# Entry
Amino acid sequence: LEDEETGEQIFVNTRDENFRKFYSYKVRERRKEFYKSMKRLGIDVVELRTDRPFYVALKRFFEFRKRRMRA
# Structure
């Protein structure tokens, strides 16, 4: 793994189950904090994925916003 800013490189053993659990935990925590911050700031978030059509998520998002605006 290489740090884009410093160029520092470290070895990451992705076969290590403990590392994978730790990494998954950190990703979940970071995601929770991100969504919490966006909500606090009043910013809507649309999650787009490369394994799903983007228009499905966007359609759902705009339908949600439309319903929310009516309420």
The chain has a mean pLDDT of 94. The helical segments are 17-41, 54-70. The chain is about 60% helix and 0% strand.
